[in-house]
Design a protein that fits this description.
single chain, 358 residues, alpha/beta, Rossmann fold, 6-stranded parallel beta sheet, 14 strands, 36% helix
Length: 358
């Protein structure tokens, strides 16, 4: 098959779970098919490049590699007519500007698939300022009215949200992890080290984690490692300084370094209030690091045996301390992670593509 993937952000930008998903699927499908990915431009990278068998075509404005730029993302609309004219057997659009690929149906008789990682809908006003909140909600409504041939959700929770908004023919294919890659990384555990990996935005509640680490420090010496960047970075650094928390902000790191940090940590914490799947939790389980997270419906793979979930911020410090001592979390978490491999994910996506292209 001639497969086209539309993803505003792609290699070498792999900061989020959505970009990681498209990358891992693309390189696996490229072993058996012709795969072309359209993405935004990045400084230092050619407009056309082959990477691990994947043909990458970069268009629109240049996008920074360490954060998200809304003005640059908007220029990805230029990739849609190019993809429609390229004679592909199937087009798969990553959530975002790419989702307007449904508008291509009058221009191409080939199947158009949309992949969604989460919907905010009535939560836009809670987590994003105006006018971004209104724009985001309007875009989600418009996507729900576009004529996709199939819709992929990354979790049962996302599929449920899509159904509420009026999407039909939704197939759930969760994201995965590269177990072999993680197993090859060798590091020593660092005692009493708590790690967060993700974007630094308000709804991720990293400030709650900093306060919890401050509370824990009254009992034990504890170090906090924060991996990622975003608009809240300055405020979070100031909060850590003001509270006297031993925190290291690593910013953007390579995939290998990310797993070195996770694997060497005592606990990984994700205090976010909004997640479509929470792939970093599965990654941490695969790395043998216990997981603590806010109790969200998206974490369908979590239970009391493989992770510790909390409902209120006041519980967070105690959950972290418990995770440092419960050995069974590591074993059970690793067993859970083995069920989610990228090879399996790619085969499921490929099967859907074949069915639509017949």
């Amino acid at each position: 098959m001639q497969i086209c993937m539309l993803s505003e952000l792609f290699y070498p930008y792999l900061l989020g779970g959505a970009e990681r998903r498209y990358y891992e699927i693309a390189v696996r499908l490229a072993k058996r098919h012709n795969v072309t990915v359209y993405s935004l431009r990045f400084d230092g990278h050619e407009d056309r490049e082959e990477h691990r068998g994947v043909q990458i075509v970069r268009t629109g404005s240049s996008h920074p590699l360490d954060k998200r730029s809304v003005p640059a993302l908007a220029t990805f609309i230029l990739a849609l007519p190019a993809a429609a004219a390229a004679g592909n057997d199937i087009i798969d659009a990553n959530q975002g500007i790419s989702s307007f690929a449904g508008l291509l149906k009058p221009l191409t008789r080939k199947p158009v698939v949309a992949t969604f990682h989460d919907l905010y809908w009535n939560q836009w006003n809670e987590y994003f300022p105006f006018p971004l909140s209104s724009l985001g909600k309007s875009m989600e409504f418009m996507w729900s009215r576009l004529p996709y041939d199939a819709v992929i959700a990354n979790s049962p929770t996302t599929a449920k949200k899509l159904g509420f908004l009026g999407f039909s023919d939704v197939t759930t294919i969760p994201s995965g992890v590269d177990i072999d890659f993680i197993n090859r990384i060798r590091v020593r555990k660092r005692k009493n080290t708590v790690t967060y990996v993700g974007r630094l935005v308000k709804y991720k509640n990293v400030d709650a984690l900093i306060r919890a680490v401050k509370e824990i420090s009254a009992e034990i010496d504890v170090k906090l490692r924060i991996v990622g960047s975003g608009p809240e970075e300055y405020n979070l650094k100031k909060l850590a300084r003001d509270l006297g928390v031993d925190a290291v902000f690593s910013g953007f790191v390579s995939e290998q370094e990310k797993f070195r940090i996770i694997k060497s940590s005592s606990v990984l914490v994700n205090p976010s209030s909004v997640e479509g799947l929470g792939l970093v939790l599965i990654e941490s389980m695969a790395a043998g690091t216990p997981v603590v997270a806010k109790n969200l419906e998206a974490y369908f793979f979590c239970n009391g045996r493989n992770a510790l979930l909390y409902d209120n911020e006041t519980e967070l410090a105690s959950r972290i301390l418990d995770a440092m001592t419960k050995k069974n979390l590591v074993k059970n978490g690793h067993e859970t992670a083995k069920k989610y491999s990228w090879d399996s994910v790619a085969r499921s996506v490929e099967s859907l593509y074949r069915r639509l292209a017949e």
